[in-house]
Design goal:
It holds the Pfam family Redoxin. With 177 residues, the chain is of the alpha/beta class. It has helices at residues 2-23, 76-92, 105-115, 129-133, 161-176, and strands at 38-39, 44-45, 56-57, 66-71, 95-101, 121-125, 141-145, 150-156. Helix 3 links the parallel strand 5 and strand 6 (121-125). It is globular and about 70 Å long.
Length: 177
């Protein structure tokens, strides 16, 4: 019995190390959202204070395909991803919405003033409630929504040129055909 008392923590530690070792090389972009093929959650987001871009709600996502990008000024990968979003907007003319995640309005304004604003509307999600409803793990995350307001694609982490060319652009084209 005494040996069991000492062996149990070692067995548990070995199991935990095994789980971490198995997961260490996993692609974070492969996280499948339970919201895929489901309507976007009901939400209303006010505009970021001091910006001349409106906030938005789920009704804004109806009528044509839309891209919803969750970002924050304090997010380094968001900064890296941002030029790709601007290029995607210029190349595809897709409606693009931003959910500004847990950010001070002055920081969001400075971020977009410095890097440009590809968004048609930006909602301030200061309390992260809408991000939680969308199933956001962290920023950045990007969703493609069809004309009926149904989420058809999710990308976790910063978009890459490869993901845009091989996944996102074909998905946008399929929604438009």
């Amino acid at each position: 019995m005494r040996y069991l008392f000492f062996a149990l923590p070692l067995v548990l530690l070995a199991a935990l190390v095994g789980v971490f070792a198995f997961s260490i090389d996993r692609d974070a972009g492969l996280v499948r959202s339970v919201l895929i093929d489901k309507p976007a959650p009901q939400f209303t987001l006010a505009a970021v204070e001091g910006m001349d871009v409106p906030g938005f709600d789920n009704a804004a996502l109806l009528g044509e395909p839309s891209l919803v990008n969750v970002f924050a000024s304090w997010c380094i990968p968001c900064r890296d991803e941002h030029p790709l979003l601007e290029s995607l907007k210029a190349e595809t003319a897709i409606r693009m919405y931003g959910i500004n995640h847990s950010d001070a309005p002055e920081n969001a304004r400075a971020f977009l003033a410095e890097l440009g604003n590809p968004y048609d509307a930006i909602g301030a999600d200061r309390d992260r409630r809408v991000s939680i409803d969308w199933g956001v793990y962290g920023v950045p995350e990007t969703f493609l929504v069809d004309a009926n307001g149904v989420i058809v694609y999710k990308h976790v982490g910063p978009l890459t040129p490869r993901a845009i060319e091989t996944e996102l652009k074909p998905a946008i084209a399929a929604l438009r055909s």
